[in-house]
Amino acid sequence: MSDPVLAELGQATQDYQAAVEDYDRETARLLGVNGTDQRCLELLLGSGELTPRELAERLNLTTGSVTVMLDRLERLALLARAPHPSDRRKVTVRITEDGARRCLDLRMPLIEEGGREVAAKYDAAQLALVIDFLRTVTDIQRRHVDRLRDQPSPGR
């Protein structure tokens, strides 16, 4: 593959990533939360419920930071804590019905319009290739996030 094609792909990927970050920032603003709070809500929308420890691991936060975040999101009525169904020493966290509705009200126009436009422009084989590409670059990105997390912060 030629360098100009890879350079164009790199630029297109950066442009997409910037657009996602801009979108996430605006939805966080409209929800009245910060970026980490929003990511927590995304995780809960996708999984139904998680423990605070699972959230800490997925968000790369301390359990103390997660507790502060959960307190904040609970005050905003975006999530609720409940006793764990099988371990009374634990709690589970889930997004509230109102929280899910508020998040989905912001996301659904993008999801619906994106689905229509993509389906109209690409066939199933092309979309399979795009899915494979996205999974590949996501794996690469995650590996490099892990690599960066293993490096000490300046001043530590």
Examine the secondary-structure arrangement and name the CATH architecture.
Answer: Orthogonal Bundle
CATH superfamily: Winged helix-like DNA-binding domain superfamily/Winged helix DNA-binding domain
Intertermini distance: 42 Å
Shape: globular
- Count of distinct strands: 3
Question: Could you state the order of secondary-structure elements as H and E?
Answer: HHEHHEEHH
- CATH topology grouping: Arc Repressor Mutant, subunit A
Q: Which structural class fits the helix and strand makeup? A: mainly alpha
* Count of DSSP-assigned helices: 6
- Rounded radius of gyration (Å): 19 Å
Which sheet architecture does the biggest sheet show? 3 strands, antiparallel
Q: Give the mean pLDDT.
A: 94
What count of structural domains? Answer: 1
CATH class: Mainly Alpha
Write the layout of secondary structure elements.
Blueprint: H1 3-31, H2 35-47, E1 49-50, H3 52-59, H4 63-75, E2 79-83, E3 91-95, H5 97-121, H6 124-149
Antiparallel strand pairs: 1-3, 2-3
Helix pairs in contact: 3-4
Explain what you see.
By secondary structure, the protein is mainly alpha-helical. It has one domain: Arc Repressor Mutant, subunit A, CATH 1.10.10. 73% of the residues lie in helices and 8% in strands. It is built from 6 helices and 3 strands. It has a 3-stranded antiparallel sheet. The longest helix has 29 residues, at 3-31. It is globular and about 55 Å long. The model has no long low-confidence stretch (mean pLDDT 94).
Give a brief rundown of this model.
The chain has 156 residues and is mainly alpha-helical.
